[in-house]
Design goal:
Distance between the termini: 9 Å
Largest sheet: none
Organism: Glycomyces buryatensis
Membrane topology: Multi-pass membrane protein
Number of helices: 3
Helix content: over 70%
Mean pLDDT: 82
Shape: elongated
Main location: membrane
Low-confidence stretches: none
Radius of gyration: 18 Å
GO cellular component, one term: plasma membrane
Number of domains: 1
Order of helices and strands: HHH
Keywords: Cell membrane, Membrane, Protein transport, Translocation, Transmembrane, Transmembrane helix, Transport
Number of strands: 0
Structural class: mainly alpha
């Protein structure tokens, strides 16, 4: 029997998962990996500034913490309900 809290945690988990995937894909590639194999290794002058990259990293870390907390909370709630 699922409660309103479990549905809220599940929705928060799904939303944070989608946002986290999008934020990770927005990061600039560091080169040498799969991104450079497909032409992403070329650096251009039109790429974002370092301030924007730092802010993107901070937002990504914050969403990752929310994602992790929602997984732990959902797991503990499901364990308590069983």
């Amino acid at each position: 029997m699922m409660t309103v809290l479990s549905y809220a945690l599940l929705i928060m988990l799904m939303l944070s998962s989608v946002v986290l995937i999008m934020l990770v894909l927005l990061h600039k590639g560091k080169g040498g990996g799969l991104s450079s194999m497909f032409g992403g290794g070329m650096s251009s002058m039109a790429s974002g500034s370092s301030v924007a990259e730092k802010n993107l990293t901070r937002i990504t870390i914050a969403i990752a913490v929310i994602w992790f907390a929602s997984i732990v909370a959902y797991g503990l709630l499901m364990q308590a309900l069983l």
